[in-house]
Amino acid sequence: MVTRSEQPFDGLGPDVVLSAAESLGLEPDGRLFALNSYENRVYRLGLDESPPGQGSDLPGVVADAVVLKFYRSGRWSDAQIQEEHDFGAELSRAELPVAAPWYFDGRSLHRHLQFRFAAFACRSGGAPELDAAGARQLLGRTLGRIHAIGALQPFRHRNRIDATQYGERLRRELLQLDIIPAPMDERYAAVSDELVTRIRGAFEQAADIAHIRVHGDCHLGNILWNQTGPVFVDLDDSIQGPRIQDMWMFLSGDKGQQRSEWAALLEGYEQFTSFDFREVALIEPLRALRMMAHAGWLAARWNDPAFPRAFPWFAEGRYWDRHVADLQEQLEILDDPPLLRL
Description:
The chain has nine helices and nine strands. It is an alpha+beta fold. It has two domains: about 5-125, Phosphorylase Kinase, domain 1 (2-Layer Sandwich); about 135-335, Transferase(Phosphotransferase) domain 1 (Transferase(Phosphotransferase), domain 1), CATH 1.10.510.
């Protein structure tokens, strides 16, 4: 059992957040709002005045506010976080709409007391409405520009998407946590083993598909939409992976609808970079990995009090019954031909 004193964000109160901002020379005005985040702790902080040279005059940037992100200890190394920051800054310099980190004296990763944290430009926007005319094409163009930059050089410290990293390891760690109620644990062990084998085979067949720097967790919850279009936030899961990783989560509905959405997305995407159509064979394996990863993430964080409060159903037998059934269904879907045309 993890005690309160061992919790990763113990002691991170409003006074600490304000003093962390002041340690960078920022002048907070007392407006402090906790933003929705479980893995890290993220706050929007009002400022009396934005520091010069941080892009506060760019379109869509809120000039009188900053976003402070406090990183969970033990998840990423300093080098991995720095690559996240440098990637965001590189995209921002290329005039891509991303929430990029601020640098102070050449540094973007800072320490205050026991916490590692960073300051990010606060971007304006609301929930995306991808059914609006031209929205998916615009999203595709923006993703194409991001991937064109992402392909210029590799990550050297961040993870790479593969079946071992996101399949075998996730399955093994989840079973070791002993959180799945019996007899569901045996059913999970069997179906997840078969699923990982199938995922591994799909990745082996796609071994020569290019892996580039991608957002990694690209879904509607990590996009704001303003008068100029999409703004991408939260590069915390940026990774070396196939381009399709940043595209498949924008497809929904029946097969006909998904094909229509894909055509619009790709229409914009290919204006800025090419797409290897063999990657569509990875959509369902990637979906399976994400299903396993989400359950593994909840299990690994269960001793953080924020998680039982937010996800009380996770420890119930009916959740695991549904999860195992979903994995079994996904295993059967892997037998189907790719939804999208090659």
